[in-house]
Amino acid sequence: MVPLPEGARDTLARLDRAGVAVNDMSRYADAPNPDALVIGYATPPGHAWPAALAALTTALGVERE
């Protein structure tokens, strides 16, 4: 699970616009900041990982090495 900062709604909306399918985890958690991503739950097939990871990191504003 990758925790998201406060204001994660904007991040989740950005992921959705980038074509990254995500669900709001807040309905499953009882915590002050339950917004998080679970990585690997609905794993894409092997050939789709590069594109999925690129879309995720781009939408999150993370630079890949």
Structure description:
With 65 residues, the chain is mostly helical. It is 34% helix and 6% strand. A two-stranded antiparallel ribbon has the order 1-2. The longest helix is centred in the last third of the chain and has 12 residues, at 49-60. The model has no long low-confidence stretch (mean pLDDT 75).
Fraction in helix: 25-40%
Strand arrangement within the widest β-sheet reads 1-2
Can you tell me the overall shape? globular
One letter per element, helices H and strands E, the order comes to: EHEH
The helix tally amounts to 2
> What value does the average pLDDT take?
75
Low-confidence stretches: none
Instruction: Tell me the distance between the termini.
Output: 22 Å
Q: Which structural class should the secondary elements be placed in?
A: mainly alpha
Q: How many runs of DSSP E, i.e. beta strands?
A: 2
**Roughly how many Å is the radius of gyration?**
12 Å
Instruction: Give a quick account of the main beta sheet: strands, pairing sense, barrel closure.
Output: 2 strands, antiparallel
- How much of the residues is beta strand, in percent? 5-15%
